[in-house]
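Record 1 of the preview.
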Amino acid sequence: MTEFRSCATLVALAVALAGCGPDTKTGSNGTGITPPAIEPTVVAGTLTGADPLATANLTYDAAVVSVRQDANAGAGTANLRLGMFLEATGSTTGVAPTRLSEASIQSAVRGPVTAVDIPGGRFTVASLLFDVDNNTLFDGIAGIGRLSVGDTVEVFALPVIEARAMLATRVTKVAASPDGRFTIAARIEQSSAIGFVLAGLSVAAPVSVSASPVALAGSRARVTGKLNAAASAISPDHIDLLPEYPPATGTRTEFEGIVIGVDNAGGFRLRTPARDFTVTAIPAGTPLIGAGTRVRLIGRASSADRIEPQFVGVIAPGEAIVYRVTGSVSEFASLASMRVRGEPVDLTTAVITGGSPADIANGKRLSLSGTAGPGFLRVTEAAILP
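->
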């Protein structure tokens, strides 16, 4: 397997990016050295690390971040899990981890599965089609082969080229809502004074949200209510217009998404859950990029939807993403069955350091790295912490 990039590359890139920032020198810091400039940053990427939070090999300082998870504006970071999609604002010197200030974590859907295509590696919930791959994390169910119509799932995903199709990054089996409520978050396709269309589903705006900002086409909303599949409509109980973080000109960007088109000038269009971006000329040495490629990039915004890239990394088909998590053991049954910081993990083939397998028990702190397995994180390295 391959990492997103080496630490040496990260350091060199960070230093280069720091040098590209606006001149905000404040004088000597007492050592005769001018402190590095602090620059605003916008983040959008799948969580590959927890404690610390990370996307790819980029780690984040989340000590003061204000997190909105789904409709909860004061969620904190304790319930954030690998494979969830992080959108955030913050600041960085380009060397130290980006310090997050405001973040949003939104699942794509929470509701019953309506169709499963096991050979094709895909399933449907309401109007959304989800593909899975070898990097999709499953929690509470041993992969798509054990997924059944009627199972209630919460799905985090990246939108792809096709409308209403997504690449699932995390699928969690959850308890069915006793009142049959269904939740979906997506870009608004059409809007009017009396409602809007979300992922092909008609939503009538209730009086209770009439004072909220107008739901404009292209913006995103999270809707909870009763689904009428036959009518392709939702009777909403709750509507939230989701926060967006369009980068201002000059803002550093740390993005992940799906390439939806390549242009003749050497750039491409990048799709993220929030919006599509035009990425200008691909840096020399970047692997071949085509429509459908999953990429991560670091760059700088020249407008709210245009990015000048300094680095573009490709997640090739079949390439295994390395996930990392640090936390306490719970629900310990065996090396093959436990949770660490809430993540289901299997340590049966892990190289264990800092102690022996017999030391692992509920409450013990572990630092793990591994890849997605059928319903768990398949751990390759495990360190027992003091």
